[in-house]
Amino acid sequence: MSTSDKSILIVCDSADELRAVRELMTSDLGNYWSTDNEAGGLQLFQEHRPSVLILAFQEIEKAERFYLTLYRQCPQMQEIRHQTLLLCKNTEAESAYSLCMNGTVDDYVVNRPLYDPFRLRLSVHQALGRRNDEQKSTAVNSRIVNIGKGLQYLDNYVGARLASGESQSAESLRALQGLTAKLSSQIKQFEESYKLPPLGKAVQGPGQNTQKSDGHQTEGTSKDAPSSPPEIMVVDDDEIYTDVLVAIIEGGGLRATSVDGGEAALAMLRQRRPDLMLMDYQMPGMDGLQTLRRMKMDPDLKFVKVVMLTGTSERELVSQCIQAGAADFIVKPSDRVTILAKINAQLGQ
Known about the structure:
- The protein has 349 residues and is of the alpha/beta class.
- The chain has helices at 15-24, 38-48, 60-73, 93-101, 119-163, 169-194, 239-251, 262-269, 288-297, 315-324, 336-347; strands spanning 8-12, 32-35, 52-56, 83-89, 107-112, 210-211, 217-218, 231-235, 255-259, 276-280, 306-310, 328-331.
- The chain contains eleven helices and twelve strands.
- A five-stranded parallel sheet has the order 2-1-3-4-5, with helices on both faces. Strands 9-8-10-11-12 form a five-stranded parallel sheet, sandwiched between helices. A two-stranded antiparallel ribbon has the order 6-7.
- The longest helix is centred in the middle third of the chain and has 45 residues, at 119-163.
- The radius of gyration is 27 Å and the shape is elongated.
- It starts with 7 loop residues before the first strand and ends with a helix.
- Mean pLDDT is 79; it is low at 195-225.
């Protein structure tokens, strides 16, 4: 975060309180403006659009009223993304906590009496960090919108090709793969920007090693048994993208099966066990996350590895998938090299 982004506004209703708060601020917190009256606070907020707003009023009710006035008199209030930090007396801590929980403010610090002179600085640093994360999220969302436009063009193009005749299917498939390759570089940047912890380390049960196609677990595969390519099950309601994945998987020397939904996937798993599943997050009926959770609750299915297919690499969505037991994720669409690399990583190849 640049120095210009680390802007702070302190609004008080007492010169003595303002002086006390300013003494706690340090240069590493960035630029800050301050005022001991509400009119000045309204003006400075609109002029400087701070990243962090510190409210240090004598009474917590006065801080609430000022913040409400700010919303009413500042038309750009909703557009000025900021973190709000409330300073209060120890007898007001419960009320301050309630304001945090209902989303009115983002954090609070008891500074009267001042038990810890470093607590305010830490809270400001944390608020600046949250604001920085929000700015990164906004930038990522903008890039997602641009990719969405590219995907819409891709869908229209492929749809028109397929509608023109069955003989055009191969050409359409090649066009689809070419366009997804162009988008893949941006999608890789999404994955790298989030710096998620290493994937594919879901807890495995004791003795898990390989699984036969009949669903029985074994400690290993007999050297005398004939080997067959690993089987990958694709679970996605998008027929075109499923065809692309199947073509990539089979082109990589693997076997592929496909179903179009969560219910169908659970039904097929009762009959056969793939070595790996690629499952779309968003599907009608039982979505990918619900299906994954059902699998992890089933003693017979919980050891089947699942790589989730998602339309974005939004941190919360990816975190939900990993916490539910996904081994990894692939952002749709992705190029052949990335898809096969993630599959082979899970297969140990």
